[in-house]
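Re-run requested by the PI after the first attempt was lost when the workstation crashed. Everything re-entered from the original request form. Ligand of interest: guanosine-5'-triphosphate.
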Amino acid sequence: MKCHSSHTNKRNISDGKIKILLMGNPNVGKSVIFSKLTGVHVNSSNYAGTTVDYTIGDVSFGRQCGVMIDVPGVYTLDAISEAEKVAVNLLKEGADVIVCVLDATHLERNLDLAFQLKEYDIPIVYSLNLVDVAKRQGINIDVEKLSQELGAPVIPTIAIKNKGLIEILRAAMKLAEEECVPGSKLTDEERWDKIRDIVAKVQTRVQKKKVTFIEVLEDKTIQPWPGIPLALLVLAISLGVVVGGGKALRAVVLLPLVKDIIQPALTNLVSLVVPEGVFRNLLVGDYGILVIGIEWPLALILPYVFLFYVVFSFLEDSGYMPRIAVLADGVLRRMGIHGGNIIPLMLGYGCAVPAILGSRVANSYKERIIIAALVSFAIPCASQSAAFFALLGDRSIPALVFVYLLSVLVGLAVGTIVNRIVPGKSQPMLLEVPNLLWPDKDAFKKKIKLRMKNFLIDAEGPMMIGIVVASVIAETGILNEFSKLIEPLVEGWLGLPKEASLSLLLGIIRRELAVLPLLELDLNMLQLVVGSVIALFYLPCLSVFGVLTKEFSLKVSLLIVVATTTTAFLFGGVINQVGRLILGAM
Amino acid sequence: MMPLAFGNKRSKYRVVKLPDSHLLKALGLRKGTEFTLESKHPFKGPVVVKVGCRCIAIDYDVARDILVEEV
Ligand SMILES: Nc1nc2c(ncn2[C@@H]2O[C@H](COP(=O)(O)OP(=O)(O)OP(=O)(O)O)[C@@H](O)[C@H]2O)c(=O)[nH]1
Ligand SMILES: [Mg+2]
C-alpha cells in the first residue's frame, strides 16, 4: 500500500499457538506494548484512533509460543463504531487470554471496558500502564487491592520504557492454560456504581502544591487565548524548521553528496560500460536518467519530506494534535467536518494517501468525501511542497506565499461546496484531549524511519518511471507532437513556453513532477506563478487516484480528477490573463 | 439548570440531562457527573470540560443539548 504505514499481515492463526488479544481504551499504549513484545512495528501516536485495523505478531515466552493481536482501542463493546465492530468480532472469534491495558491516569473510565470484557469467558491479565504519568499527576493506585477487586493479575507497566512488559507476557501465558468463569452481566448503572466503589478503594490522589510547567501548558493550549496564537506560533516554527532546515540540509549535506560523490561515481561507472553516444547521454548526460533520477528525489525532495515527518511525528506524539483540533473545530465545522479531522488534513501535507486512509475511522461517508476532496484539491504533499520551495523559494517568497494562500482559500471553498452538495450527516466532535507527553525517543526514531522508508519505496519508483518517460518522449519527438497539440492551451491561455507541456504529462504520475520540469525552463515571474498554481491544483498523483477509487469509487475519483484539472487550468489561465493586463498597463 | 453551552469558564457543573449518545457515555459523561468547564471557543467551537483529570472536547450543538446545574 502506498505511503501506508500500518502493516497488517493477517496470517492463519489457528496453528496451536496461544492467542492473546491486546485490548483497551484508545490511546493507552497498546500499540507500544505490541511493538515491544512482538518486534512488529505498528504506528503509535498520542491521540485516540491511531490503530484502525488489527495487527498480528508472534510472541514467545520460554517454550510457549503465541500470537498477539493489537486490537483497535475502544471505549465500549457496543459495536457501533468501526473500531468497536472489529474488537467485538475478534472477541467473538475467541482467544486464550486477553491483555487489557488500563490507563493509570484515567482508571475509572478504563475499568468500564474492563468490566465489559469480563463478561466474555476469556481470562484477563491487566496492564496498569502509564504509571509514570500517573505518578507525575499525583495519582497513586494500590495494585494489590485492584487485583483483588478484579480477581485477576494486575501488573504496573511503563510501556515506552519496557517496564513490566515481560511480566505481562509471563502472566498471560500462565493464565491462558487456566479455566475462566465469565463475570456476571451487569447493567450500565450497576457497573458504574461498582467501578466508583473500586476506584474509591484503590486510588489515592495527593494534592500537589506546585503546578508543573506541563500542566500549565496543557491548560493554556486549549484556551482560545493564548491557545490560538500559540498554535499559530507552533505552526510557524514548524514551517521554519521544514523550509529553513530543508534548505540547509540540501545545501550542506545532500547537494555535495549527490553532485560531488554519487554523480561522478555513476558517470565514471557508466562511462566504463557504455560507449559514448546517445545511450550514454540518456543515462548520465546533463538530464540523464541516473543524474536527475537521483538528484531530484534525493537532493531536492528528501530533505523537506524528512523534516516534515520529524515535525509532524513530534506534534503527533506530544499530544498537541488534538489541541489543534479543538481550536480548529469552529472553522472546520463550517465545511461539514469536525475539528478532529485536522489530523488527517495535516497528514495530507505529508502524503495524501495515508490522509485519506486515516479518515476511515470515525467518520461518515460525507465527511470522508470532504476530506478526500480537500486533500486532493488544495493540500500539496511534502514532495510537491519541496518542489515549490525549490522553484519559488530562491526567486520570490511572496510568490510562494501567494501559492499557499490560494491553496487555503480554494480549500475553504471546496470544503464549503462539497459540504453543500453531498447529502448525509456529519458527526459532532467528541474528543478526548490527551496529556501532553514528551515523545519517546525510540518510538519516535522508528516512526520516522518507517515513514522515510515508505516514502523512498513509494516515491523513487514512480519518479524514475517519470524521468524515463520524460527522456524517452523527449528523444523520440512524441513530446513535440503533444506540445503542438496543446499549444493553444499552454501558450495561448496559460502563457507558458510549449515545453511546459512536459509538466502536464509527468504531473499525472506524481505531483512534484508537475513542478520540477519548470525548474529547467527559463521562466519569468508571472510564468512561475502560473506554472505553480497549475501544478498545485492539477491531478492528484496516480497513487492517490488508486486510493480514491478503492476507498470510494471510480466515479468519485474521476470526478475529483476532472474538477481539480478544470480548476487548475481555470485559475492558471485567469492569473496569466489578469497578470498580463496588469503588467501591460504598467 | 441551563445548557452546557451557556456555562461559564472555570465553573463547576453537574449533568442533569443529556442526549442518549453512545460516545458521551463512553467518555464518562453521565447523569450526575460533576465536571469543570475548562474552555469555550469562538465560532460555535467546542466546549472543553474536565471530568476527573481528563479533558473532553464537546461539540457546540451537543453541548447545547446537555443540561447542567452549577455546583
Ligand atoms: N509516558 C508514557 N507514555 C506512554 C506509555 N505507554 C504509551 N505511551 C505513549 O502513549 C501514546 C499512545 O500510545 P499508543 O500505543 O499509540 O496507544 P494505543 O492504545 O495503541 O492507541 P489506539 O491505537 O488509538 O487505540 C504514545 O504517544 C506513547 O508513546 C507509558 O507507559 N508512559
Ligand atoms: Mg494503537
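Saved to the shared folder this time. Residues 160 and 441 of chain A are 9 Å apart (CA to CA).
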